[in-house]
Design a protein that fits this description.
The longest helix is centred in the N-terminal third of the chain and has 14 residues, at 29-42. Strands 1, 2, 3, 4, 5, 8, 9, 10 and 11 form a 9-stranded mixed sheet that branches. By secondary structure, the chain is an alpha+beta fold. The protein is built from 6 helices and 11 strands. Helices cover 22% and strands 36% of the residues.
Length: 230
């Protein structure tokens, strides 16, 4: 009976592609969900909500973006209780959208398609250190890191807990480059899977760069399965 109630609560699933920049870079993951909910409701989007004493919008993200990061490519699925034309959705959604969030594409996704979190494969990032070393020095550091068979590091887990892990297999691609202004940047592709997620700040630390002294921008998220609406 519970499953029937949940299925009857929505009729359409839309996948949003959006960017997060400007003031939105300081919106944390939980606050981002609330911000999107408020903005979509104000724009008259017929969002479906969960049943029960504490109804929540049927909204899910591909992957949390750390506070302070910017992104050109975030993914979120929303479930609606009334159908709307995907091609007309971006304009309506942007009518009341919070500053720094730009809906760039909307596609319809089958209701029974797997959750976004379960089909993410990897993500691409660009990191721009505020005080980058010379290109030759940085290229040498990258070569040394990629030549390593393993890069054991530690992550803090809760109060006093530390998890030891190998960073090297989480790095798919890593290269030094320069942007259009001639500034030194790092381009990286990192795994984005359950239990196997690479973090740009940890790659920077492994290169002896201060993760807090760099601008980190996500440029793409790759999914395991092709988008069924494409």
């Amino acid at each position: 009976a519970k499953i029937v109630l949940m299925q009857a609560n929505y009729v359409q699933r839309l996948r949003l592609t959006f960017s997060k920049d400007g003031p939105a870079r300081y919106i944390g993951h939980l606050d981002l969900a609330r911000t999107l909910e408020r903005s979509l409701n104000r724009a008259g989007i017929p969002m479906a909500y969960t049943q029960g004493f504490n109804p929540r919008p049927r909204l899910s993200f591909a992957a949390a973006l750390p506070l302070g990061y910017t992104s050109a490519y975030e993914l979120a699925d929303i479930w609606l209780f009334e159908e709307m034309a995907p091609q007309a959705a971006p304009d309506q959604m942007m009518q009341k959208m919070a500053p720094g969030i730009q809906i760039t594409a909307v596609k319809q996704i089958p209701l029974k398609y797997p959750s976004l979190q379960s089909v993410t494969s990897s993500a691409r990032y660009v990191a721009a250190p505020f005080e980058a070393p010379k290109m030759t020095d940085l290229s040498h550091r990258v070569e040394q890191l990629l030549a390593e068979q393993s890069l054991f590091r530690e992550r803090k887990r809760g109060k006093g807990k530390v998890k030891r892990y190998d960073l090297r297999p989480l790095i798919v691609e890593l290269a030094s480059d320069s942007d259009r202004y001639g500034d030194t940047i790092l381009k990286m592709t990192l795994l984005l899977m359950s239990g196997k997620t690479g973090r740009p700040d940890e790659v920077l630390a492994a290169l002896d760069l201060d993760p807090l002294a760099a601008r980190i921008h996500r440029t793409f998220i790759t999914l395991v399965e092709p988008d069924p609406s494409s």
